[in-house]
Amino acid sequence: xxxxxxxxxxxxxxxxxxxxxxxxxxxxxxxxxxxxxxxxxxxxxxxxxxxxxxxxxxxxxxxxxxxxxxxxxxxxxxxxxxxxxxxxxxxxxxxxxxxxxxxxxxxxxxxxxxxxxxxxxxxxxxxxxxxxxxxxxxxxxxxxxxxxxxxxxxxxxxxxxxxxxxxxxxxxxxxxxxxxxxxxxxxxxxxxxxxxxxxxxxxxxxxxxxxxxxxxxxxxxxxxxxxxxxxxxxxxxxxxxxxxxxxxxxxxxxxxxxxxxxxxxxxxxxxxxxxxxxxxxxxxxxxxxxxxxxxxxxxxxxxxxxxxxxxxxxxxxxxxxxxxxxxxxxxxxxxxxxxxxxxxxxxxxxxxxxxxxxxxxxxxxxxxxxxxxxxxxxxxxxxxxxxxxxxxxxxxxxxxxxxxxxxxxxxxxxxxxxxxxxxxxxxxxxxxxxxxxxxxxxxxxxxxxxxxxxxxxxxxxxxxxxxxxxxxxxxxxxxxxxxxxxxxxxxxxxxxxxxxxxxxxxxxxxxxxxxxxxxxxxxxxxxxxxxxxxxxxxxxxxxxxxxxxxxx
Amino acid sequence: xxxxxxxxxxxxxxxxxxxxxxxxxxxxxxxxxxxxxxxxxxxxxxxxxxxxxxxxxxxxxxxxxxxxxxxxxxxxxxxxxxxxxxxxxxxxxxxxxxxxxxxxxxxxxxxxxxxxxxxxxxxxxxxxxxxxxxxxxxxxxxxxxxxxxxxxxxxxxxxxxxx
Lengths: 552, 163
Prior knowledge:
The complex is a heterodimer. Chain A is of the alpha+beta class.
């Protein structure tokens, strides 16, 4: 059978295309490496989901080789399975969107023109996008309606232009401690913003509302309130989803992709023919598949005759911090507010999305605040060591665990700023190391530009001011060059020049007539927010382009 | 059912085979890994016994899991050897033949070693996993940690064991 569209990957990058085109009457097949789980399969089994990482591949079977660039410009090599260093995020229908926390921020207009707005940065490949915020805005709005984004629009220094005045879903219920936060921000003259979330507060869109389990990040949503690509899109369309289908090669002639070859769970090979192929296997794996799909027309990998595939890999820059609130310093009422379980914290700061330093305009970022994850075991493990960092046990440990978990609570913050694209951060292939399918694994070359950490530190200091004003103790933060594996983009950046980009403005490969890439790979710069909303929006945009193409 | 399967596994696992011990540069004898590990777990966190958490069964269950690496299992087994050899050095007896305060002294001593502290951390972690495990795993039948710590989140619970 010849499908109209074959999509590789069922996450936030692939599903909007599947949803739109199948609903428009086109034949769509989605090849997904992972299994299918539905709401009834999801629960809060910490041992399976979190401790043993049920939803990501075992590194013994599938891994990456990681090269870290040190200060002497030498690469240090890490075999993922040896060092338990995983870049997997969620192999399942709907991909990692099932496991996201759903902190949804739009990119700002200047994020689309970083080079024009802030100028060149030595050692970084900063460029403008071939697309403007205004062009993507209708699709951000579409995601709000179809995937479901809840929140409250408040005026602030960097509120992006909106075509609607409100979110379609009211903000989720909030913990009383948000009042302390708002009050602290007011004292500091900071602009507190309710964080938009891809979680619907009540039944809508043929999904249940949030049950306030407080286990969003890393866990599948048992009610369907979280806007995963599966719950919001794939379960509502007729696209055929083939699970446990690992695509190991795209076959092409000189101008077109002709077939996708995949292994099933029994290691049997299959092939799919289609008019159009859409690649959305998440940034690192999409580049890997293209690089592994060499043929006589593309001897360096598919769509890679200009040696751009895998280049300019980016992550979210920044880091995380925290402060602890202890009963000793709180009134009885505050103690009750602090320990309220289930209600969201949902506060962000974007006042320094752009700021001045030594009279220079600097691109800053976003700070999200959230309570420490409800997972019990990591919170208990934090009590294992005393103030001298020596391990404790017995009664001393028992008392410490009880005190920490029943009379205090940690408020975290996460900093998101640009991870500048550079020549040193990219995806390659490690020919000698094969996965369980016998296919060479991806090699991840890591490097973070020093400015990334400088900006992250500037932002973290603002977050610390809020925690201090709120009365938190034991405040600390870490801004580093460690890449967050769940916020990764680039590798197939879009642009107007085929010499410096893989995709054109429509996310079609410059070198092939029918290959599109719609996961975060297309992003030449990442903005200073989590990527998922932008990936969804862009995929809806490409879906419109594909529909017009198929209709014509 | 799960635990029965694990017990069958135990016969073949690294926990089933004895650990050889050396004292004063010569072979002293052998020690039972599971007996050692479960006693050390209770010595490190006696609350598990008070809360009726079956840490021994949990060890059998979890150490059979595909995500627990061979090198980690080897590390745990090596720890059994260090523990007994330290016991022999300090008190001339195997760890599980010592009095409670003597065992604490041994634990204190090995916690000072480079590998001793992570070994204790690993045992404590498995105790906490058992303590916080869902009832479907059969080792924490009364939601012990949840009641002890007043933990009322984490719903829905699993209907079957995913591990």
